[in-house]
Write a structure and sequence with these properties.
With about 280 residues, the protein is α+β, with helices and mostly antiparallel strands. Helix 11 runs antiparallel to helix 12. Helix 2 links the parallel strand 2 and strand 3. About 40% of the residues are buried.
Length: about 280
């Protein structure tokens, strides 16, 4: 691993981005620093500290719930507005992954920026319809699902916006692990709307397949317009088992993960039946 020769304390987002742009691949932003400690690019010689850039706030507006890039998982898990959003699913997830010491360090921006295949935060944010605020040559807002496919090196993540139009829908997550602190063998996240015991809206995301996050509109389409009953979700599980790409690794076989794909839809059905009653 390369030697760090400069620790730069940026005074603003513009200052941080300008510094990163001038150094290219030799610079990295510091949020919580967890990923930099574990898996730093050996080319990096300058770390750019974002702690003075005002990215550590959670703010609710008329349109969105905004999480600054330096907001930690621990802060998310405790925040009242996040607990009230989409059934509190994001707050619950943020308080039940990794170790407590790490939850005080892991930031939402760092989780998005590194986006490891086993990441549990990114798939759930995508299921919730999150947008990401970024700064490259200008400040922009784009769907998080687009950002993780298109991100360019040096882009500064400013934060995440959760649309308030989704606040009253039901967020669901199911991460199959051996222990709470383990990484997921399979992750399923969903956002479900229900009207008069019929599914009115659905977003379905799978991750840890062992690949990264993928949206599955074909599976969601099998739910929309159908009653909130076990049969609906059993059928969606069969469709998901065929549609979701899974693979082998040292931790689980593809065939085992395929059964977990189906089981996630069954678990979603059990949860939604309780919500709809």
């Amino acid at each position: 691993m390369g030697v760090i020769t400069e620790y730069y304390r940026a005074t603003s987002c513009d200052d941080a981005h300008a510094k990163a742009k001038s150094l290219g691949s030799a610079a990295a932003y510091v949020g919580g620093g967890v990923e930099l400690v574990l898996r730093r690019n050996p080319e990096v010689a300058t770390l750019i500290d974002l702690s003075r850039c005002g990215l550590g706030r959670i703010v609710k507006t008329a349109e969105a719930l905004s999480l600054g890039a330096q907001v930690t998982l621990a802060a998310i898990s405790r925040n009242g507005d996040v607990k009230a959003y989409a059934g509190g699913s994001l707050a619950y997830l943020a308080g039940h992954i990794a170790h407590n010491n790490l939850r005080n360090m892991i930031t939402i921006g760092g989780a998005i920026g590194r986006n490891q295949p086993w990441n549990d935060i990114v798939p759930h944010l995508i299921a919730l319809g999150a947008y990401v605020e970024i700064q490259d040559d200008q400040e922009r807002v784009m769907p998080l699902s687009d950002f993780i496919r298109q991100r360019e090196p040096g882009t500064l993540i400013l934060g995440v916006r959760l649309p308030l139009v989704n606040a009253d829908l039901h967020g669901f997550l199911w991460r199959f692990t051996r222990t709470q602190q383990d990484i997921s063998l399979l992750h399923c996240s969903a956002l479900i709307g229900v009207q008069e015991s019929v599914v009115s809206a659905a977003t379905i995301v799978y991750a840890g397949r062992p690949g990264g996050t993928v949206l599955y509109p074909k599976v969601a389409a099998e739910l929309i317009g159908r009653p909130v009953k076990a049969e609906t979700f059993l059928h969606a599980g069969d469709v998901a088992a065929q549609a979701v790409e899974v693979g082998d690794d040292l931790r689980a076989s593809g065939s085992y993960r395929r059964e977990l794909v189906r089981a996630a839809m069954v678990r979603l059905g059990e949860e939604m039946a309780g919500v709809a009653q």
